[in-house]
Amino acid sequence: MADRKPAWAADEIMTVVAARHLRDGMSCFVGIGIPSTVANLARNTHAPNLFLIYEAGPLGAKPYRLPLSIGDGELATTADSVVSVPEVFNYWLQGGHIDVGYLSAAQIDRFGNLNTTVIGPDYHDPKVRLPGAGGAPEIAAHCREVTVIMRHTRRAFVPRVDFVTSIGLGPEPGIRSRFGFRGAGPINVITDLGVLKPDPLDNELTLVATHPGVEVQDVLDQTEWPLRVASSLEATEPPASEELAVLRDLKSRS
Questions:
Q1: What phi, psi does 96 have (nearest 5°)?
Q2: Cα distance between residue 223 and residue 109, in whole Å
Q3: Rounded to whole angstroms, how far apart are CA atoms 228 and 157?
Q4: What mean pLDDT value characterizes the chain?
Q5: What digits encode the pLDDT tens for the residues 106-164?
Q6: What secondary structure, in 3-state letters, does the chain show?
Q7: What residues are labeled active site?
Q8: Which of the listed residues 6, 97, 184, 185 has the most CB atoms within 10 Å of its CB?
Q9: pLDDT digits (tens, 9 = 90+) for 10-58
Q10: Closest Cα partner for 100 from 165, 164, 46, 25?
Q11: 63-102: pLDDT as tens digits
């Protein structure tokens, strides 16, 4: 990477780039952590009409600060309405009414499968037992599209995940529809190094953009499979001063 230290942290550029992918008026299924930060950054900048849905039931939440959990009272008090968890999943999510879901994971493979369950080949005796699925498999299956946000490291970007918690795209055309999944799956993977998208022919993740100061070799070095690189590789726009100011203000309120 370039020697000159950028004016933003790795998580900040990842969050800013992810927020730019959200369009005004979209409905977004939001998880706690980076996905919530991304959605609220977008809502407080270019997408004021972004409709946020949290797993616990708040619809149209407009939190002043970043929520600490899906049960944070800030979500319920700022929402247009609050419904039951079964309604969120059975009607909103499984019914195909949510435009985009944002997910993260401990591992992702070259076809966008995600692992948040165990690290190690033996499920019953893993090296690490992770928090588990939560609502992620439903989000991956039924949101119209999915964006994955995670740090880019060799232990996270692996040829094959140790456990498929949330299904990605698979090497065969139509694999998702055969399982009855209505959503398109992961169409963007945004990391602290760049942006990956699935190849339209075989769904394998391909590097399509790098962040300022990041070289292609930096990304290849942090990927455990031979990562494809797009012939027309792009460079993401650096975070604007307004984006950074809003992001840092949001974090300071928490």
A1: 80, 30
A2: 10
A3: 13
A4: 92
A5: 999 999 999 999 999 999 999 999 988 888 999 999 999 999 999 999 999 999 999 99
A6: CCCCCCCCCHHHHHHHHHHHCCCCCCEEEECCCHHHHHHHHHHCCCCCCCEEEECCCEECCCCCCCCCCCCCHHHHHHCCEECCHHHHHHHHHCCCCCCEEEECCCEECCCCCEECCEECCCCCCCCEECCCCCCHHHHHHHCCEEEEECCCCCCCECCCCCCCCECCCCCCCCHHHHCCCCCCCEEEEECCCEEEEECCCCCCEEEEEECCCCCHHHHHHCCCCCCEEEEEEEECCCCCHHHHHHHHHHHHHC
A7: 55
A8: 185
A9: 999 999 999 999 999 999 998 888 889 999 999 999 999 999 999 899 9
A10: 25
A11: 999 998 888 899 999 999 999 999 999 999 999 899 999 9
